[in-house]
Every structure is written in structure tokens, then in C-alpha cells.
Amino acid sequence: MTAPATPVAPRKRLLASIHDVSPRFERQVDMLAERLSGHLGAGRFAMLVIPDHWRGAPIAGNAAFQARLRGWADMGIEMFLHGWAHKDETPATQGLAGFKGKHMTAGEGEFLNLSHAQAVERMSAGKALVEDILGRPVAGFIAPAWLYGEGAHAALSELGFALAEDHMKVWRPADGMVLAKGPVITWASRSKARIASSLWFSALARQALPALRTVRVAVHPGDTTVPALLASIDSTLARFARSHVPSRYASLQGPAGLF
């Protein structure tokens, strides 16, 4: 009689990403890519591409940076669209949207207050631009500062993005299915208070989050300016690389991908 198969434990995943990939931050992105590669292996992370950071660093027409994007994608790095300008040009002043825009980002919640039509226009243009450069589909869409308004959510559901992400989850826009849950571990460099709070949270996360099926880590160009943040990033990546397999976001779409 054949013995029953031993159940296979679900694979734990580590998803890492470099935000704000733009010609404006090319040197810092190189530094972060080298750091992540050292912990996770070459190409075992994602990049979030901004087509025209603050409308002063366009990728369109920049052949050298376009070649860099293709080279990174050829290494296996997943490429997400990360807004269009990464700048909130329609800021709210009241209510929950106003609170988020003021306290959760430094004027960069681009998709927090856009109408449906505006969100469709920017997402469509960004998707077409980046996919034309790469010669392949983008991996998904992640809004600047992980902030989405109603217009952005509506646009996501109809534009064919495979994945989307906010502070607390990764989901599939086509049907709204949540594929991973848990807070993003990230760092902030724009003030002493935010540096201190992000160091505190990342230290807590190293102790509290190893049981999560999927752990997400996100780094930003500004992190490279603060040695304490870089040390914390190293500690965090090293800790989770021991318990979680450095993986691609696309792996969440598989049968073992949920949560």
C-alpha cells in the first residue's frame, strides 16, 4: 500500500523592490541594485519606473536610460509602472484624502485625488511608454506612495495590469483578488523623526514578521544618503533572506501564491 504523500510546506516569499527608478536617481538606483543583488541574487527584485519624475526627468527621448531599463529587465528584474510624474498635482485639503496627502507623503501622492479619466490617461500613457521601451509587458502598477483614490482604483480594473500593491497588500486588479497580505517594510529619509520611526519599525518587523507567508521590502533612492538606513536595510534583507525565498511578484499568481 502506497504511503500518503507528505504535505509540502507553503513556500515563504521575500519580495523586494527599488522605488523611483528614474534618470534623476540613476546613481542611487545603481547603489541599491548592487546592495539588493548582494543579499538576494542578481535580478531577484523589482524596479518601479517613473516616466517623468516631477516633470523634470523624462525617460522618453533618453536613449541611454532606456537601454539601462532593458538591460535590467533582461537580467530578470520585474518592471512596474510607478505613476507618471510621482507628484500630487491635485492635492486635497480636507478629509481622509487631505490627511493622507499631508502625512503619508511629501506631496507625491499622484494618484490619490485624480479623476477616473485622469488616472486612465496617465496609466495608459505610462504603460505604453515603458512597455515600448522594454519590449514586454510591465509587471503591474504601483501608485506613488502606495496611495490610490477612487479614480485610480477604477482605472486599474480596466487597463490590464497584472498586479497592484499598496501598503498592506498585493492584489490582482482584474478581479480584486488579494494575493499577499502584510505591511511593506520601508524606510524614510526626509526628516530625523521619520528616519527614527522607520529604523524602529524595521527592527520590530525583523522580530514580528518572519511568520508571514510573504514579506515585502521596499527601498528608495533617498535611503542611500543615510548610513543608518543602509545598515538597517542590510540587516532586514539578511534576516528575511534566511527564512524566505527571494522571489518575483509574478510568483504570487501561481497556485501556492495566496497570502
Describe the protein:
This protein is an alpha/beta fold. The chain has a single domain, classed as Alpha-Beta Barrel (TIM Barrel). It contains seven helices and ten strands. The strands form two sheets. Strands 1, 2, 3, 4, 8, 9 and 10 form a seven-stranded parallel sheet that branches. β2, α2 and β3 (78-81) form a beta-alpha-beta unit. α1 runs parallel beside α7 and α4 (116-134) packs across α5. It is globular, with a radius of gyration of 18 Å. It starts with 12 loop residues before the first strand and ends in a 13-residue tail after the last strand. The model is unreliable at 93-105 (pLDDT under 50).
In short:
This protein has 259 residues and is of the alpha/beta class.
- How many β strands by DSSP? 10
Return the CATH topology: TIM Barrel
Structural class: alpha/beta
H/E series, N to C?
A: EHEHEHHEHEEEEHEHE
Query: What gap, in angstroms, lies between the N and C termini?
Result: 35 Å
Number of domains: 1
Q: What is the average per-residue confidence, as pLDDT, rounded to a whole number?
A: 91
| Estimated radius of gyration | 18 Å
CATH class category label: Alpha Beta
Count of separate DSSP helical elements:
7
Helix content: 25-40%
- Main β-sheet, in a few words? 7 strands, parallel
Instruction: Point out poorly predicted stretches.
Output: 93-105
Tell me the fraction of residues in β-strands, as a range.
15-25%
State the shape: globular
In the CATH hierarchy, the architecture is Alpha-Beta Barrel
Organism: Novosphingobium pituita
InterPro entries: DUF2334, Glyco_hydro/deAcase_b/a-brl
Protein name: DUF2334 domain-containing protein
